[in-house]
Amino acid sequence: MNPRILAVTTGRILRQLRHDRRTVALLLVVPALLLTLVYYMFADQPAPPGGAPSTFDRIALVMLGFFPFIIMFLVTSIAMLRERTTGTLERLLTTPLAKADLLFGYGIAFGLAGAAQAAVASAVAYWLFDLETAGGSGLVIMIAALNAVLAVALGLFCSAFARTEFQAVQFMPVVVAPQLLLCGLFVPRDEMAGWLQAISDVLPLSYAVEALQEVGAHAEPTGTMWRDVAVVAGAAVLALVLAAATLRRRSG
């Protein structure tokens, strides 16, 4: 990769994001509104005995990692498809821009956007709704930003198999929904049927959720948390490599 070209590519993508007001609202405003909804859903529930986390604390902490994953997957898959269908990607690849520069530029740009989104949502959760976690909010933001990079990589990979924006959206139930259901939010992973647990063990979002839960339960970063972070980062790199292998100049 060429660092200068990578920086230019990242800047171009960030400028596109900044001028798209609807996408900015989707990134920064919608998560805060959804957190507000979750808060008032559980506001009247009694505190659990024994100092256990409240239902809101448990769910909101995980949702802070979900938002970048879901939104960045949607935005990235559509953005890359649009660059192919409009011929922008074909023109870009006639320049010294390499596939790796483009894909990692997307990863960095949307990772920064995911970090901004996580920072805003975390500020709402911690300061307005008194979210309580044993670990610091900085670790939550770091894991959320890493989730954003993972979602970008998966979105870039899946966009290669779509010809229209509608087809790109159809990948969400296939890629996002199973990870949401099997990550351990609704049922602890070790209480699932054996075959469901086996599927959960190969889904990267399961490790992101476990890392967030470690932050919620421990004041200092744990070995399990760092292992989970490494798994998510490795999955993001693998997805970027697969995306580079499947990247096409134009839609068929």
Could you provide a short overview of the structure?
Helix content is 75%, strand content 0%. The chain has eleven helices and no strands.
Overall geometry comes to globular
Task: State the separation between the terminal residues, measured CA to CA.
Answer: 27 Å
> Mean pLDDT score, rounded?
85
Helix fraction, binned, reads: over 70%
Strand fraction equals: under 5%
Q: Give the helices and strands as they follow along the chain.
A: HHHHHHHHHHH
Instruction: List the uncertain runs.
Output: none
Strand segment tally = 0
Report the major sheet.
Answer: none
Number of continuous helical runs: 11
Q: What structural class results from the helix and strand content?
A: mainly alpha
Radius of gyration: 19 Å
What is the multimeric organization of the chains shown? single chain
Give a written overview of the molecule:
With 252 residues, this protein is an all-alpha fold. It is built from eleven helices and no strands. The protein has helices spanning 3-19, 21-28, 30-42, 55-85, 88-92, 99-128, 137-159, 165-182, 194-200, 204-217, 223-246. It is globular. 40% of the residues are buried. The mean pLDDT is 85.
